[in-house]
Specification:
By secondary structure, the protein is α+β, with helices and mostly antiparallel strands. It has two domains: 226 residues, Zn peptidases (Aminopeptidase); 111 residues, OB fold (Dihydrolipoamide Acetyltransferase, E2P). 22% of the residues lie in helices and 29% in strands. The strands form three sheets. Strands 3, 4, 5, 6, 7, 8, 9, 10, 11, 12, 14, 17 and 19 form a 13-stranded mixed β-sheet that branches. It has a four-stranded antiparallel β-sheet with strand order 16-15-13-18, with no helix packed on it. Strand 15 and strand 16 form a beta hairpin. Helix 1 packs across helix 6, helix 4 crosses helix 6 and helix 6 runs antiparallel to helix 8. GO terms for molecular function: hydrolase activity, acting on carbon-nitrogen (but not peptide) bonds, in linear amides; hydrolase activity, acting on ester bonds; metal ion binding. Keywords: Hydrolase, Metal-binding, Zinc. Its cofactor is Zn(2+). InterPro entries: AstE_AspA_cat, N-alpha-Ac-DABA-like, N-alpha-Ac-DABA_deacetylase. This is Aspartoacylase.
């Protein structure tokens, strides 16, 4: 896309001139009663020409950590746009947001429906509206997400790194973890990339929450991108380390029981190191689940209990340099964002050393007796 051939100056009857910031509400559909349904958007234009970037959140209506980050951007007076344009959309899926739901009322997933159809389902029509009104005006996009329900994610960027523009943008964003992944069919980022608008996502935190450290990480990364493109003044904040993750693994439980974690989001693990212990309601140890790989904890369940086959932990595999990164993290001060994220994201569950929880962990998974109650 060439920003010189696109305009962000007219939104319905609203004209946004260079140097102006205006709030608009753009109609995308109507309710059963015939009332207009609108998406609130803030448009910021710099004095000088430059790239247009859309920042979206809550494409899944319950993932509102990104909403908090965009609202922080909107209220930060320090962000003075010199060049280019920002399209800030705190909530894309307003119908899901109103219902505290991931989905639209027709129970379809908006982030599997792009680029959509003007004659399709309710969700498909909304996807088409977003594509025509937001993506088509933009040179780049950043879409903010969280883990799905009952899970949390340590902040990680996901992008198709075969695209040189996305290599530059994600590097500038400054998240320590970048997963090389084009995204599923029908996702906003994949469809936008296919349409010539390089787009990546940030996955961080939990649904139904605006977590302060996640907001800080998100805003820091967004400002880094703006600075790197010359859109605002400032110095890019560099993360303590960077690594690209090419593949991930889910670790699943073989037994039912209550969970006692021994790691937190963002922790490094080695093959065979204990991740979580399962135990019965009466405290009998059932299984010590160990890491199947070397890597870093990307995500975890926030449920306190599990059943056989359920995922308990998501590991990002690190090909090289893990010991060096571990040393870097060990030397960080307690107030470092990396450590605050780790502590904040682990507040939904208990984290203890395995030795503090079970003195002699079983070697094999015990078979439950007929009268054992979990």
């Amino acid at each position: 896309m060439n920003h010189e051939k696109l305009t962000v100056d007219r939104w319905g009857d609203v004209i946004v001139s260079p140097g102006e910031t205006k709030d608009v509400e753009v109609r995308f559909s109507e309710s059963y009663s015939g009332m207009n349904l609108n998406i609130p958007i803030q448009i910021r234009r710099g004095i000088e020409p430059g790239p247009t970037i859309f920042i979206t959140a809550a494409v899944h209506g319950d993932e509102i950590n990104g909403t908090g980050a965009i609202r922080r951007l909107i209220t930060e007076e320090s962000i003075q746009l010199k060049k280019g344009n920002l399209i800030l959309v705190p909530v894309v899926n307003v119908l899901g947001f109103e219902r505290h739901s991931r989905y639209l009322p027709d129970r379809r997933d908006l982030n599997r429906s792009f680029p959509g159809s003007a004659k399709g389902s309710q969700t498909s029509r909304m996807a088409r509206f977003v594509f025509e009104q937001i993506v088509s005006r933009s040179d780049f996009g950043i879409d903010l997400h969280t883990a799905s329900v009952r899970k949390t994610n340590f902040p990680n960027v996901r992008a198709d790194l075969s695209n040189p523009d996305l290599v530059k943008l994600t590097h500038a964003f400054g998240c320590p973890l970048t997963i090389n992944d084009a995204g599923p069919e029908g996702s906003l980022r994949r469809s936008a990339c296919d349409a010539g608008c390089p787009t990546f996502i940030l996955e961080a935190g939990e649904v139904w929450k605006v977590e302060s450290s996640v907001t800080e990480q998100s805003v820091r990364g967004l400002k880094n991108v703006f600075i790197s493109l010359g859109m605002i003044d400032g110095e890019v904040e560099v993360p303590p380390y960077r690594t690209i993750i090419e593949s991930t693994r889910w670790v699943r439980s073989d037994t039912a029981g209550f969970l006692q974690f021994h790691v937190a989001p963002g922790d490094f693990v080695s093959t065979g190191s204990p991740i979580v212990t399962t135990s019965s309601l009466l405290g009998q140890v059932r299984q010590v689940i160990e890491s199947t790989e070397d890597g870093i904890i990307l995500g975890m369940t926030t449920l306190p209990m599990t059943a056989p086959g359920e995922p308990v932990c998501h590991i990002g595999l690190i090909n090289k340099g893990q010991s060096r990164m571990e040393k870097v993290v060990d030397q960080l001060p307690n107030e470092a964002l990396q450590l605050r994220l780790r502590n904040d994201l682990s507040t939904s569950f208990n984290v203890t050393e395995v030795a503090d929880f079970v003195e002699d962990p079983p070697d094999d998974v015990p078979e439950p007796s007929e009268d054992e109650i979990l």
